[in-house]
Design a protein that fits this description.
Region (Disordered): 98-117, 180-203
GO molecular function: DNA binding
Protein name: Peptide-binding protein
Shape: elongated
Pfam families: FHA
Number of strands: 11
Oligomer: single chain
CATH topology of the largest domain: Tumour Suppressor Smad4
Strand order of the largest sheet: 2-1-11-10-7-8
Number of helices: 4
Order of helices and strands: EEEEEEEEEEEHHHH
InterPro entries: Cell_Proc_Reg/RNA_Proc (IPR050923), FHA_dom (IPR000253), Sig_transdc_resp-reg_C-effctor (IPR016032), SMAD_FHA_dom_sf (IPR008984), Tscrpt_reg_LuxR_C (IPR000792), WH-like_DNA-bd_sf (IPR036388)
Distance between the termini: 46 Å
Number of domains: 2
Largest sheet: 6 strands, antiparallel
């Protein structure tokens, strides 16, 4: 077998061989790998073979594609053991046989989450709501003002809690994407909370 996906979907497991130069994934039955779910776009993602190996590219889907929990923003090379998530389906990539002599890349589990105060947990939960709600391919976290309005606290208090959260999650680089990286880390480590919907103030 030239390489394959182990596909977990609809309560079943199946193997999908990668024998052609490309494979489309989406809700439409015409795809080489159809996934019957409203969370999946009709033409959702494309898997292609290049000299460097197999890659996956999101095709502007509504809910996005992730590899090992990270959104796919451009064509990304797949490594043996990579976990691809598309809607409710989970795909585990297995490297082509001709590359079997190379070192297998093992996906390490995320580190345990840091201990959070109740208020820090509330801030994290509100921060992560757009990432859990779905509906957009690359969500943005709510602004400090929106978090403050949702929790009925001051903006300075939110900034103080965020500063402590950055330290606890090891996000030392101060840049415009730090809130997004904090939300991604919280989701990855399982402390994002499970809010049912996004408040209007957080949109």
């Amino acid at each position: 077998m030239d390489g394959y996906f182990e596909v977990y979907a609809a309560g079943a497991v199946r193997l999908v061989s990668l024998t052609a130069g490309a494979l489309t994934i989406g809700r439409a039955p015409s795809n080489e790998l159809p996934i019957d779910s409203r969370l999946v776009s009709r033409l959702h993602a494309l898997v292609e073979h290049f000299p460097s190996g197999w890659s996956i590219r999101d095709l502007g889907s509504t809910n996005g594609t992730t590899v090992n929990g990270t959104p796919v923003r451009q064509a990304q090379i797949l490594r043996d053991g990579d976990r691809v998530e598309i809607g409710p389906a989970r795909l585990v990539f297995h490297a082509p046989a001709e590359h079997s002599s190379t070192r297998t890349v093992h996906v390490e589990p995320p580190p345990p989450p840091p201990a959070l105060t109740p208020r820090e947990q509330e801030v994290v939960t509100v921060l992560c709501r757009p990432f859990l709600a779905g509906g957009v391919p690359f969500p943005e976290p709510p602004a400090v003002r929106a978090i403050a309005a949702t929790l009925h606290i001051t903006e300075s208090a939110v900034k103080k809690h965020l500063s402590r959260l950055y330290d606890k999650f090891g996000l030392t680089t101060n840049d415009d994407r730090r809130r997004s990286r904090l939300a991604s880390e919280a989701v990855r480590r399982g402390v994002a909370g499970t809010p049912p919907s996004v408040d209007a103030s957080c949109r």
